[in-house]
């Protein structure tokens, strides 16, 4: 009996020691993740203004790093164009617990970065060059660099991959189709008719007259479109961070590149006719495409995109819309985190 008690005591002691060791390692890991002591951006808690060289001179763009992970660094490309990083505040609720480093970033022209008025700067090619300069400044490479782009940021992410995929470890295209003509067709032929017929007819009439300053246009969109396809919540319940980003949008960049319409790209806007459907097959880096059941973008098209790239995976958020990081949050983050870790472990 004494021998049995002695053996049980030894086993229990070993289990306690093992558990303690695991907790110590976890504590050390999170301490390292949160440690700013050897970082140049410690002074402002991860914030850094990065100088960008452009054909019109040097400007600064705002970034903020969260966490330290030499293997998993995610640069977040916001939509718009001309929106802000604030759309991704909810990433704070998920990525730190997984030890994933991520970088908030306001593109040139957006609220926290410099806002030059030179319209020659608002081209896809120059934005791609800007992202590359940010990557270099933040010392990211194919061993750790994941690029996440949503909406317009998804266009920018695709364009960056087509030019610089040798610098990428993983690519995420969220809530963005590979053709703006296909997007316009989906908006007008599928989403628009879901509204009451008289409402959609009035919206189309305003668009045909280019009467976009008419307050009725925004009123109709807010009531019948935005809270069903942009963010599936009553407007009064939209997250504060989203409202802040909308307040901070730069209309000069948005209108020049996208135009006024919410059912396509306005004639004369610089993104008009953008189409990369035929080029997707050349993307060989592991790629996650995220679509949503109630998105402004066609989820079937985005599933097709995942099959076109060489190492694609599709994440479908059935209850989500264009900002599915909020309205189908658990599905969105579970799938996104799994993709990042699967790429890191060589499983895709």
Biggest sheet, strands in spatial order? 1-2-4-3-5-6-7-8
Strand content: 5-15%
List the uncertain runs.
15-19
- Record field, number of beta strands: 8
Main pleated sheet: 8 strands, mixed
CATH class of the largest domain: Alpha Beta
Going by CATH, the architecture of the largest domain would be 3-Layer(aba) Sandwich
* Number of domains as seen in the coordinates: 2
Family: Belongs to the peptidase S33 family.
GO molecular function, one term: peptidase activity
Domain AB hydrolase-1: 74-328
InterPro entries: AB_hydrolase_1, AB_hydrolase_fold, AB_hydrolase_sf, Peptidase_S33, Pro_imino_pep
Structural account:
The protein is of the alpha/beta class and 348 residues long. It has 2 domains: 1-34; 43-348, Alpha/Beta hydrolase fold, catalytic domain (Rossmann fold, 3-Layer(aba) Sandwich), CATH 3.40.50. Helices cover 42% and strands 15% of the residues. The chain has helices at residues 2-34, 124-137, 152-164, 180-191, 197-208, 215-230, 240-248, 251-257, 299-308, 324-327, 329-344; strands spanning 47-54, 57-66, 73-77, 101-106, 145-150, 170-174, 287-292, 312-317. It has an 8-stranded mixed beta sheet with strand order 1-2-4-3-5-6-7-8, sandwiched between helices. The longest helix is centred in the N-terminal third of the chain and has 33 residues, at 2-34. The protein is globular, with a radius of gyration of 23 Å. The protein starts with a helix and ends with a helix. Mean pLDDT is 93; it is low at 15-19.
Which structural traits does this protein have?
348 residues; alpha/beta; Rossmann fold; 2 domains; 8-stranded mixed β-sheet; 8 strands; 15% strand; globular; Pro_imino_pep; hydrolase; signal; peptidase activity
